[in-house]
User: Fold these one by one.
Assistant:
Number 1:
Amino acid sequence: MTPQQHPIPSGFTAASTTSDVIKGIDLRGRTAIVTGGYSGLGAETVRAFLAAGARVIVPARSVERATAALVGMGGAEVWSMDLLDAASIDSFAERFLSLGEPLYVLVNSAGIMALPERTLDARGYEQQFAVNHLGHFQLALRLWPALKRAGSSRVVSVSSWGHRFSQVHFDDINFERRPYNPWSAYGQSKTANILFAVELDRRGRDAGIRAFALHPGSIETSLGRYLPREILKVAGFYDDAGNRVIDPSKALKTVEQGASTSVWCATSPQLDNRGGVFCENTDIASIDLSDPRRSWTPADSMTNTGVMPYAIDADSAGNLWTLSMRMLNLPSEAVPL
C-alpha cells in the first residue's frame, strides 16, 4: 500500500465546491479530456476547467446530444467516442495524437451503475467492468504519448465509496461462475478504478504522469437511474417529502461539491509529487480497516469513509493491469514502462 495514502490535510472540506478548489488555478494553454463531461459531475468538472482557461474535449457516443447538453458552457469541444467500442476509442486517441499536442489532464468520469441484469458487451465482458474500467484503461494507454509529452500530467478516475461492495474477482470477472449481483458488479468495477490509478501511477511517475482515484460523494445524477426512489428514501437520501437531502458531512452533496474532488485531483499543486492514491472530500482519504467481509449497504456511505486496503494493493494493481491488457488484446509493447 502506498505510504502516501493518508490525509494531507488539504484545508478543504466535504462542503468545498469546484469554485473553491479552482480559485487561483490557471489552466490557460492546457488541454483536458473529460469522459462523461456532458452531464452531472463530468459537466461540472468541464465547467470548472473552462473557467480556469483550459481547452476541454468531451468524448461522447452522441455528439449531437452532448453538444446540446453543453450549450452555454462556453467552448467545450465534443468528439465522437464510445467506451464500449475499442475501435472508437482508438479513433478518438489517434485524432488527438495527430495534433501533436500535450495532454495535461484526463478525467475518467463516465460510468454506469447497478445494472439490474447481467449484461455483456459485444466481446462478452460484463458491461459495468467494460465501461467503468476497460474503456478508460484503453483510452489512457492510447493517449499515453500525449500525457508524457506534457511533462507533468494527471489521470483522474472517478471511483466510488461503492468499491466496498466487491474486490476484483480475477477468476470470474464476467459472473460466469457466480450469481450476478448489481452491486457486486458495480463494486468490482469501482475497485478496478482505484487499482488502475495505483498501477498507472507506478508506471507513469518517472514520465511525469500521476494518477488518482476518488469518491465524489452521493450526488443525484443520471447514474442512479436504476435505483428505485423508495429504496433511496428508506436509506436516508431523500426526506419524507421526496426532496434530496444535502448534507456534506454525510457525503450527501450537490454536484458542485461532488465534483470538487475531481477538480482538486486534476489541478491542485498540493498533489505535486504525489499519486497512486484514493481521495474523498477534497483530500487524500485514510485507509478503512473494516472487515472486508462485511456486508455493506448504500446507507453506510453516510457514516463510513476511507479506502479498503484491497483497493490499493500493489500486487492486485499489477494483476489487474496484466488482465486488462489480455482482455483488450493489447500488445505487450503498448505497456508504458
Number 2:
Amino acid sequence: MSARYLTTTLPYVNADPHIGFALEIVQADALARVWRAAGDDVFFSTGTDEHGQKIYEAAEKAGQEPQAYVDRYAAEFRKLKEALNLSNDTFIRTTDPAHVAAAGEMWRRCAAAGDIEMREYEGLYCVGHEAFVTEKDLVDGKCPDHGREPELLKERNYFFTFSKYQDRLLEYLSRPDSIIPDWRREEAIAFVKGGLEDFSISREKARLSWGIPVPGDETQIMYVWFDALTNYISTLSWPDESGNFKKYWTDGQTLQVAGKDQVRFQSLMWQAMLMSAGVKTTDQVFYHGFITSGGKKMSKSLGNVINPLDLVEKYGTDAVRYVLLRHVSPTEDSDLTLDAIHEHYTAHLTNGLGNLVARVMKLAEEHVPEPIAVPAIETLLRGDRKTFESFAFNEVLDRIWHEIGVIDQVMTNEKPFAVVKEDAERGRRLITQCVEQLAVIAQRLAPFMPGTSEKVIAAVRANKKPENLFPRI
C-alpha cells in the first residue's frame, strides 16, 4: 500500500466557483478514488486562497470587511464537495490560523537560508495578477488577461532570490515525470533557461493591510502567492514534520493538479521555495487546459460563464462529472457550451446508459431468478489504472462507452426480450450476460460517476430495474 498526497490549487475567492475549477477538482477526485480502490492510502486536499489586493478591493466594493467577504465565498466553494460528490479529506483556507503560522515559518526558513532581501523596486503592477509586469507583457498598454492598465508602483519590498535556483530547478525539471504533459515541462525548462528574475514577496502594509504580516516586520505584508503556496504543506500540519506531513509528503508520493497558467508558480516558484526551506520538492504536477465557451474565453460581460452549481441543479452530479471527464480534454483547451452539455446528457446518458440499464434490468427482474455476483472493483480498475495515471480520463470513459454500445448491440441484434419467450433458457443466458457486463461497467464507472455506479450495482444485486437514472430534460 502506497501513501499518496493529492491536491488541487486553491481558487481565489473573489467570484463564484467556475467550470474550470470544477474540471480540476473532479479530475483530482477521480484519481483519488482510483488510488483508494487499489488499496492506496490517499490524502486529498483542496481549499480557498483568501488574501491579497483583489480580495481587499472586491470586499471594499461589496461594502464588507475582508474576513466577512471571504467567509461568504469560501462557503460557496465548500458547496462543491456535496454538489460534485467529492472525496477530499480536508478543506484548507489561507485565513486558517494554522496556515498563517506555517506561512510565517516558510518565510523564516527562506530568510535563514539567505534567500530573502529587502530592496527598493519601481515597476508596473497588475492588480489582476497581483504581480509586477513588464511592457512586453502588455497589449496596447493593458494587461491582456484583465483589460486594465497596470499601476506604476515604487516601494520597498522583500524579494526572494529566485535567480539562485536556476541550476537546481533545471535538475528538478530534468525528471520526465516532474510535469505532465511533457510540453508543459518543456515550457518550464525554457522559462528557466531564459533567466530567472528575483521576485517580490511582500507589499507595504500602508498600501495593503489584508494579508499575513511578515515575521519581524509589521510594516510589510506577505505577497499573496508566497502565502498561498505554503498551503500544500500546511494542510498536512507542517511545520510539524511528523504525522501526516512525514507520511504523505516526505515518505509518500505527491501530486499537484493545476491549470496550465500555473506552471511558473507551481513548478518553479513553489519548488524554489521548498528547496530554500529544506523541504522535499513536489514529485509531480499535472496541468490541465482551459475551458472556453463558443470559442471565447468565459467572461461575465460576454454572458458565457458556466456555473457548475447551476449545472448540477439542472442535470445532476454525475452528469456534470461525466461531461467534464469525457468531453473535456485532460490537457488541451476545450470548448463547452450549454447546448453541447445538453446534447451529451441526452445522447449518452438519457438515451444511452440510462435507457440501457432500464431495459436490461427490467428483463432481469422478469426472467432471471437470482441476482448475479458483482465482480470486485480492484480487479476491474487494474486494467484502467495505467491510462488513469497518464491522466487520460476521457480515454477510459471512451472505452467504457464502447462496452455500453456492445451491450446495446446485443439487445438490438439478438433481441433477448423476444428470445426468452421462445427459448426461456437461452433467453435467460443472454439477459444474464448483459447484466454481468453492466455490473463490470458499473464498477469501472465508480471513479467517474460514483452515484450512478452505486445505483446500478444496487440494482444488479437486487435484480430489479432501478429508478430512472437520467430523466429526460
